[in-house]
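Hey L., structure's done. Input below.
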Amino acid sequence: PSNVLILLDKSGSMSECMAGGDYFCNPDDMASDDNGDVFVIQYPGKGLVKMHYDTMTIDQTFADNGLYDPTDDNCKVLSSSLAYGLTEYYDGHIYSSDFWRQQVVKINSQTGECVTKWDVNGHPNGFTLIDGHLLMSKWTWDPGTVSGISSINLSNGNIKHCTNNNLFNFNFGIAADSTLENLYMFDSSDKRIKRFALSSDGTNYCP
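Output:
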């Protein structure tokens, strides 16, 4: 929404979580659904919150009184001091990530139920979602992990790990154009935005 008020606290009296009423803490990434409700993954490791934008109140019917933070490792989402929380919305579901468990989780946006998860064999640090196709960039960190792009077709759940590409390792932010012809990445090493042509195998897109 365009009518967002940003408060700058010169006095330093505000904490990471504002006192009183409904709130969220340290947003790492945000997404909104078709109703304009907002989903926020909180840093560091404080779970995923759903808020009604029109009333600015927590949706108590979502997950555990508005907070998605399950104990099941297969459903975990994580944003911590050495990780990045990612959130996207598509067709009634939230897609979020767990950097350390190397997974992407599909969550029902109404109930907060964990629907499924995908193992991505790398540490996800960037999402872009176009027309039902979720592409993510991955870092190598733990032994055996792979950098590059993984692609999930959200209509059928098929995942494809694209050819390894170290250019995506320890870089920040990806985006695709609306036609899924090109993928863009910011390369922090030379301070340039780089473009990669996307191609489809009939199910998934890869650079």
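The mean pLDDT is 89. The longest strand covers residues 123-130.

-- N.
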